[in-house]
Design a protein that fits this description.
The complex is a heterodimer of chains A (about 110) and B (about 110).
Chain A: E1 3-6, E2 11-14, E3 19-21, E4 23-26, E5 32-38, E6 44-50, E7 56-59, E8 62-65, E9 75-77, E10 86-93, E11 101-103, E12 107-112
Chain B: E1 5-7, E2 10-13, E3 19-24, E4 31-37, E5 43-50, E6 53-57, E7 65-68, E8 75-79, E9 88-95, E10 104-105, E11 109-113
Parallel strand pairs in B: 2-11
Antiparallel strand pairs in B: 1-3, 3-8, 4-5, 4-9, 5-6, 7-8, 9-10, 9-11
Classes of the chains: A mainly beta (about 110), B mainly beta (about 110).
C-alpha cells in the first residue's frame, strides 16, 4: 500500500542553521507530494507541494524536490529561524481516486536562538 | 484568505454519548474530508465526501461514524456512541474541483471522551 516515511525527531538546530528533513514514499503510479506544518496549538497548514517528477515546491524559504528515482521529497531550508519551530509532516495523495492524504509520522523541529 | 473553520475547538463528552463536529469548508470547494490524529500518532484519513456521497472511507470509519452536509455551508462528522479511543484531534479539510489533491485543513476539534 501507499506510505510515507520521514526522519524521526526531534531535530534541534541553532538559528540560521541549514535544515534537512528526509522523506521517502511508497506509492503506485504518480502521487502528488506535500509538506504540511503544524505550529504549536494550531492546525495543519500547507507549506508546499509538487505534483510531478522533478518539480520543486517552495514557500517561505523552504524547498523540496520530487525525486521519482529515489522516491524522495526531502524538505530543506537554508537558514532556519526560531519561528520555524513546529512539527513538519510529509504527505502524499495517490491520484487513483478518493484523494485521501497519507501522512508521515511528523518531525518536530526546535530552533534555538 | 479563505479558511476552513471548525467548531467547537474543544469538546469533552462521556463515553456512549453522541457528538457532532462541525466544519465550514472554503466556499467554492466541493470535496470534503475528515481526518483524525490521536495524541502522539499519525494523522489518519477517515472519509472523503463529494456530491452528497461518501467517495472513500477508511476501516476506522465504521458504523458509529456518519457524515452529512446539512446545508450549503456546513459539513458534519457525527460519532453516535463515543468510546474512549475516539479521543483525538479531528481535522476537516476541503479541496477544489480540478485540484482535489491539494487539501486545506481546518484548525481541528480536540475531542476528549471520558
Amino acid at each position: 500500500g501507499n506510505s510515507v516515511t520521514q526522519m524521526e525527531g526531534p531535530v534541534t538546530l541553532s538559528e540560521e542553521a541549514f535544515l534537512t528533513i528526509n522523506c521517502t514514499y511508497t506509492a503506485t503510479g504518480y502521487p502528488s507530494l506535500f509538506w504540511y506544518v503544524q505550529y504549536p496549538g494550531e492546525g495543519l497548514q500547507l507549506l508546499l507541494k509538487a505534483t510531478k517528477a522533478d518539480d520543486k515546491g517552495s514557500n517561505k524559504g523552504f524547498e523540496a524536490t520530487y525525486r521519482k528515482e529515489t522516491t524522495s521529497f526531502h524538505l530543506e531550508k537554508g537558514s532556519v529561524q526560531v519561528s520555524d519551530s513546529a512539527v513538519y509532516f510529509c504527505a502524499l495523495v495517490a491520484n487513483t481516486g478518493g484523494f485521501k492524504t497519507i501522512f508521515g509520522a511528523g518531525t518536530r523541529l526546535f530552533v534555538k536562538a | 484568505e479563505p479558511e476552513v473553520t471548525q467548531t467547537p475547538s474543544h469538546q469533552v463528552t462521556q463515553m456512549g454519548q453522541e457528538v457532532i463536529l462541525r466544519c465550514v469548508p472554503i466556499s467554492n470547494h466541493l470535496y470534503f474530508y475528515w481526518y483524525r490524529q490521536i495524541l502522539g500518532q499519525k494523522v489518519e484519513f477517515l472519509v472523503s465526501f463529494y456530491n452528497n456521497e461518501i467517495s472513500e472511507k477508511s476501516e476506522i470509519f465504521d458504523d458509529q461514524f456518519s457524515v452529512e452536509r446539512p446545508d450549503g455551508s456546513n459539513f458534519t462528522l457525527k460519532i453516535r456512541s463515543t468510546k474512549l479511543e475516539d479521543s483525538a484531534m479531528y481535522f476537516c479539510a476541503s479541496s477544489v474541483s480540478g485540484q482535489q489533491e491539494t487539501q486545506y485543513f481546518g484548525p481541528g476539534t480536540r475531542l476528549l471522551v471520558l
